[in-house]
């Protein structure tokens, strides 16, 4: 039997979102219905709304969530009714060429629900990142549910579902930061701040936080930054020079671009030490192109790597970081800037643009 609930839908490119009735179908054999407890307002949702990701409107937005399993399909074994879960968009298949090579973090055939949620007139909704959780309930594949400590605050641990895990994983997994290394993070939104916190967790000795917003660079100290740079009006070389000044003239072992625009890419690239590692976790615009002198690419050595979802494995990482949060070792709660209602999502998108929040979180 289907269920009708309220959800936030983007009907057309650039238009304001609407809170409207959506229909949750009966779960397929391996699907589950999750009662959503919290959903973070992520920039990816704004990108869906603005048409920067695709044109498959209407979209059911929201994906950074925690909730409780309410109904399960007949073949579901991964979770049971009543489980407290964080939703993920990397439900690995175990069978694709990446999984067969032992690299499930790159799974090319991740699972989603077998059925579409719809508007009340039957129009199928495209769920953001296969989740669609700006809604009182949502339909996902069982593999998209990762059980975590049920004592944890849903608003905090739900953020592991996307942005915070992306930044944290960019530092710990993709960047492979080692004890005592130096790190620079360029761009201090939620993802960048999570990369700063991840660098501290990994044991970096020098953590340099770079942004054009002096408030954010000051804020970064709470997450572990040992030094900050206000890059307002500075050229790429001037930023790199400031980084070198803080690292004995060499540059950092790891540089993380948490924005995904060409200026921050270049800042990160040139701020590395020779043979240093660069990670790009900010998602670039579809029209951007990387232009570097080939001799600079060759001559600096090291590695340049994109971080997809922070190269995480939800079943391994979500429970571990939830427990670190519960132990007081990782500050997930500090990323929750405000707690809002479902009807406040459109306003939260505008607040996001001001840079005054790391995450607005919808609570149900």
Automatic annotation (TrEMBL):
SUPFAM superfamilies assigned: GroES-like, NAD(P)-binding Rossmann-fold domains
Family matches, as Pfam families: ADH_N, ADH_zinc_N
Domain of life assignment: Bacteria
Keyword Oxidoreductase part of the UniProt annotation: yes
SMART domains from the UniProt entry: PKS_ER
EC number assigned by the record: 1.1.1.306
The name this protein goes by in its record: S-(Hydroxymethyl)mycothiol dehydrogenase
UniProt similarity note: Belongs to the zinc-containing alcohol dehydrogenase family.
Class of this enzyme: oxidoreductase
Cofactors (names): Zn(2+)
An example Gene Ontology molecular-function term: mycothiol-dependent formaldehyde dehydrogenase activity
Keyword set, alphabetical order: Metal-binding, NAD, Oxidoreductase, Zinc
Presence of keyword NAD: yes
Occurrences of domain Enoyl reductase (ER) (ranges): 14-362
């Amino acid at each position: 039997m289907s269920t009708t609930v309220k959800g936030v839908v983007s009907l057309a490119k650039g238009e304001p979102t609407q809170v409207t009735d959506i229909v949750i179908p009966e779960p397929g054999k391996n699907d589950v219905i999750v009662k959503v407890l919290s959903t973070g307002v992520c920039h990816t949702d704004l990108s869906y709304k603005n048409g920067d990701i695709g044109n498959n409107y209407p979209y059911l937005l929201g994906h950074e969530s925690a909730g409780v399993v309410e109904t399960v399909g007949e073949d579901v074994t991964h979770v049971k009714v009543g489980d407290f879960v964080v939703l993920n968009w990397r439900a690995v298949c175990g069978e694709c060429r990446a999984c067969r090579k032992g690299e499930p973090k790159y799974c090319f055939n991740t699972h989603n629900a077998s059925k579409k949620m719809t508007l009340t007139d039957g129009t199928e909704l495209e769920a953001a990142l296969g989740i669609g959780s700006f809604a009182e309930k949502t339909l996902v594949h069982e593999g998209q549910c990762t059980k975590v400590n049920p004592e944890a605050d849903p608003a905090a641990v739900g953020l592991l579902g996307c942005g915070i895990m992306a930044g944290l994983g960019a530092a710990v997994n993709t960047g492979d930061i080692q004890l005592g290394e130096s790190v620079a993070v360029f761009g201090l939104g939620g993802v960048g701040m999570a990369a700063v916190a991840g660098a501290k967790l990994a044991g970096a000795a020098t953590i340099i936080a770079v942004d054009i917003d002096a408030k954010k660079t000051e804020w970064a100290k709470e997450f572990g930054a040992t030094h900050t740079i206000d890059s307002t009006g500075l050229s790429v070389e001037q930023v790199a020079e400031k980084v070198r000044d803080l690292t004995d003239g060499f540059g950092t072992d790891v540089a993380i671009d948490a924005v995904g625009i060409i200026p921050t890419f270049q800042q990160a690239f040139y701020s590395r030490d020779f043979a240093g590692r660069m990670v790009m976790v900010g998602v670039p615009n579809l029209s951007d192109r990387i232009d570097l002198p080939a001799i600079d690419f060759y001559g600096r050595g090291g590695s340049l790597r994109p971080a997809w979802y922070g190269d995480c494995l939800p079943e391994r990482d979500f429970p571990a970081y939830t427990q670190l949060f519960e132990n007081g070792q990782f500050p997930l709660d500090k990323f929750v800037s405000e707690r809002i209602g479902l009807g406040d999502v459109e306003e939260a998108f505008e607040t996001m643009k001001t840079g005054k929040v790391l995450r607005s979180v919808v609570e149900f």
